[in-house]
Design goal:
The chain starts with a helix and ends in an 11-residue tail after the last helix. The protein has helices at 3-28, 38-53, 59-68, 77-99, 104-125, 130-152, 167-184, 191-200, 208-230, 235-256, 262-284. It is 73% helix and 0% strand.
Length: 295
């Protein structure tokens, strides 16, 4: 069994472990689910994970849509993002790790670093009060929007031809991906900063896909199990987004494959900035307002 097969087998085991924990918790509380809309959360999952597969990223758009349609309490958005996107991202990782060549030491070491970072980060984020979550996510979304804007303006390096890292560059990649893994549990999507990291270290832009999707696919089950055990997530929203997301990933990867996404990226940047402002405004409001209403 070659190394890639071993990696994918390990990923399948992580996915099965997470799915078992998630489904068990969902069934335990199936008669006491949140009062939100199956149709809305499943549709959100389909749309955001569809475009996630094409490289847009899912965390920031999902946050924006959940708040716009008033589907989830702000306090549990980080846990909901991680739990709901875990299985769709694992499906993405299987697709991209198999078809895009990347040097195996670079792939495994950066994935491991992100996973360890997520394990540490999830234990902290799952216990944060709502106002701190709102401020953290508001800042996180602003950073995400800036990175996407920098990409659109061609401010970031365009990458090189390398498919792996060695020496000091590998050490930098490991350290930064560890930090990105920890930050992802607070709602900062890993795709944009990881793609920027890959470009800056001189690797091929294509290599970003197996690295960032592989990192997310391994770190998210680890982080998400912590959120599930703490009960720090929305169960109905997470299940709906998961189901819609898996369908979206498969259609994007095998049927659509590519779309002209430049205009969409500008729209997403605007939506993310708006959501960032509303989160910070909610956190600094003297009244402890909630975004969740009856549906």
């Amino acid at each position: 069994m070659n190394v890639i097969t071993t990696v994918l087998s390990a990923l399948a085991a992580f996915g099965a472990w997470f799915a078992a924990v998630f489904v068990k918790d969902f069934m335990k509380h199936k008669d006491n689910l949140e009062d939100n809309s199956w149709v809305k959360v499943t549709s959100i999952g389909f749309v955001t994970n569809f475009f996630d597969t094409l490289g847009i990223g899912s965390f920031a758009p999902t946050t924006a849509l959940l708040r716009a349609f008033k589907q989830v309490h702000d306090r549990v958005i980080p846990g909901t993002l991680n739990v709901s996107c875990t299985l769709p991202v694992i499906v993405e990782a299987f697709i991209f790790i198999k078809v895009i060549q990347v040097e195996i030491v670079t792939l495994i070491s950066m994935i491991a670093a992100a996973t360890i970072g997520a394990w540490i980060g999830a234990g902290i984020v799952s216990k944060l009060p709502e106002k701190k979550v709102q401020i953290t996510m508001g800042i996180a979304l602003f950073i995400t929007a800036f990175l996407m804007f920098a990409g659109q303006m061609k401010w970031m390096p365009g990458g090189g031809e390398a498919i792996g890292l060695t020496g000091g560059k590998l050490i930098i990649g490991i350290i930064v991906n560890f930090i990105l893994g920890a930050l992802m549990t607070a709602g900062i999507g890993l795709y944009a900063p990881c793609m920027a990291l890959v470009y800056m270290l001189g690797m091929s832009p294509k290599v970003a896909f197996p690295i960032m999707m592989g990192s997310c696919a391994f770190l998210m089950p680890v982080a998400s199990v912590k959120f599930v055990k703490e009960g720090a997530y929305d169960r109905r929203a997470s299940m709906g987004i998961t189901l819609g997301g898996i369908v979206g990933v498969i259609i994007a990867a095998y049927i659509v494959k590519s779309l002209p996404l430049n205009a969409l990226r500008w729209i997403v940047i605007g939506v993310i900035l708006y959501t960032s402002v509303t989160l910070i405004k909610s956190a600094t409001n003297t009244k402890n307002s909630e975004i969740f209403d009856e549906n």
